[in-house]
Amino acid sequence: MQPEKSSPIIFTENLTKVYTAGRIKVTAVRRVSLAVEPGEFVAIVGPSGSGKSTLFYLLGGLTQATEGRVVIDGVDFASLSDAERTRLRKHRIGFVFQKFNLLPTLTAMGNIEIAYAVSGKKEPLDRTYLNDLSELLAIQGRLDHRPSELSGGEQQRVAIARALITRPAIVLADEPTGNLDTKSSDAVLHMLLRSNRELGQTTLMITHNPEAASIASRILYMRDGELVREEKGSRSGIGLPVSGAALAAV
Questions:
Q1: What is the Cα–Cα distance from 192 to 98, expressed in whole angstroms?
Q2: Residues 180-228: pLDDT tens digits?
Q3: What's the rounded Cα separation, in Å, for the pair 119 and 101?
Q4: 3-state class of 247 per DSSP?
Q5: Nearest Cα residue to 170 out of 91, 229, 105
Q6: What is the DSSP letter of 91?
Q7: Domains in the chain: how many in total?
Q8: Are 153 and 187 in contact (CB under 8 A)?
Q9: Does 132 reside within a domain?
Q10: pLDDT value at position 200?
Q11: What backbone torsions phi and psi does residue 82 show, to the nearest 5 degrees?
């Protein structure tokens, strides 16, 4: 007997987003149907203005669709109130943004801890997991530093730790290397790949860079608000740094 296929953890059907300014209507996302299986690493590639960031916000429940639907882990966003949608995001989704969005007055540790505190989880923060995550991301020696004292690569890795600390089922990353140099970009991409493999999160990354997207298991290309092509990625991480020492040097 064939094992039963798992349901998609991210599912959209005819997803459409139209922005209106007076009499002008702009369709940013047009009839996008998408299914992402648990544990997949999917990259969505497209130039500026292709609609990929709007799609990111739709998938994260940060904006509402004009038409169609978004289903996250079996829950249709349209069936939720604003408070319920916020609660689902806090518990099920970790966000990594191009702008690190770290609180400047808090240390790296404080930024990670506050993300856990506002998630609403009842159980105390697992310090062993935090230590393991810090080691995985090679930031264990930088946790008492404020963002202004960290390099761009270090700040982004702290942002990844903040996204992963609640053990979300899904990680959504919007241009996570857009503000980084090549060395820091490679380190961050490697960590996203490694956390996908070792922590089991489903990862969806938005990027304009086909080379960055190549580490994914599946690459979707977007243009004019539509998904126009799909291909397999290498998901190999070839050429990316693998050691903690290499990461700590970034």
A1: 14
A2: 888 778 878 888 888 888 888 899 999 998 889 999 999 999 999 999 9
A3: 16
A4: helix
A5: 91
A6: H
A7: 1
A8: yes
A9: yes
A10: 85
A11: -60, -40
Q: What is the CATH number of the domain that holds 193?
A: 3.40.50.300
Q: Give the residue from 146, 147, 195, 153 showing the smallest Cα distance to 170.
A: 195
Q: How far apart are CA 212 and CA 207, in angstroms?
A: 7
Domain of residue 109, residue span: 38-65+82-248
Confidence at residue 5, expressed as pLDDT on a 0 to 100 scale: 57
Stated pTM of the model: 0.85
- 32 within some domain: no
pLDDT of residue 248: 52
pLDDT at 246: 45
Question: Can you tell me which residue has the tokens 């240390």?
Answer: 107
Residue 21 lies in a domain: no
Distance CA 222, CA 59 (A): 15
Please give the average pLDDT of every successive group of 10 residues along the chain, which has 250 residues. 68 96 91 95 94 94 94 92 89 88 95 90 90 86 95 89 91 88 82 84 92 93 95 63 48
* CA neighbor of 136 nearest in space, from 97, 174, 191: 191
Contacts of 126 (CB under 8 A, 6+ apart): none
Which residue, chain included where needed, has tokens 């190999």? 236
CA distance 124 to 114: 12
The answer to whether position 7 is within a domain reads no
**Measured in whole angstroms, how far is the alpha carbon of residue 111 from the centre of its chain?**
17
Q: How far apart are CA 72 and CA 10, in angstroms?
A: 5
Contact by Cβ (8 Å): 213, 229: no
Say which DSSP state 218 is in: E
Q: Find out whether 50 and 224 touch, Cβ atoms under 8 Å.
A: yes
The first and second tokens of residue 135, run together, are: 């080691």
